[in-house]
Write a structure and sequence with these properties.
Blueprint: H1 2-33, E1 38-41, E2 52-53, H2 64-70, E3 76-82, H3 90-103, E4 104-115, H4 122-128, H5 146-155, E5 159-166, E6 172-174, E7 203-209
Parallel strand pairs: 1-2, 1-3, 3-4
Antiparallel strand pairs: 4-7, 5-6, 5-7
Length: 211
Amino acid sequence: MKEVIKKIPLVKKIWNIIRVKIAENNFRKLIKSNKKICIVVGASGIFEPNWIPSDQEYFDILKQEDWKYYFKSNSIDAILSEHVWEHLTLHEGLIAAKNCFAYLKIGGYIRIAVPDGFHPEQSYIDSVKVGGSGAGADDHKVLYTFKSLVSLFEEAGFTVTLLEYFDNNGQFHTKEWDVMEGKIHRSAYFDKRNEDARLTYTSIILDARKI
């Protein structure tokens, strides 16, 4: 019985390696079989039709070797990232943005959403801040404002268009954006916490385009 117990961690390790390898192979097949390469970074199983989901365990956006393994430079049509960048330090966020820039086609874009540091509700800020009370906030490294997020992606070479954000006066700004170009669930329109017409949960949402 003791020998069986000792082997359990090894069996779990082997199964995890197999599971990740299967996911990696599926990711490569989807890239090859789709006419347009539209990637969801950190999908966690949430993605729309015609989008290719990925997760960090087999595609780490900070690792140049991972990008080279799956893609050629200037080959990706679009990237979607919802609530990923806040889990990176500012330095890591810039590295990831530069990697996206290198592998997107000319005219390609990344649509990104992160928690909004200018949201006027203190309960929201307490939930999403670094070390906040919300789900996953214990791993948050940065609380962006529209200014700091735009600055980061412009530094990486992108031309940026803001889609949703609060300004430093607590005023909400939004412009019409095409869901087919990347659905952000934690947005003014789609987040169910906003059903009473109060903006309980929103994100900074922007398109960063490679011109």
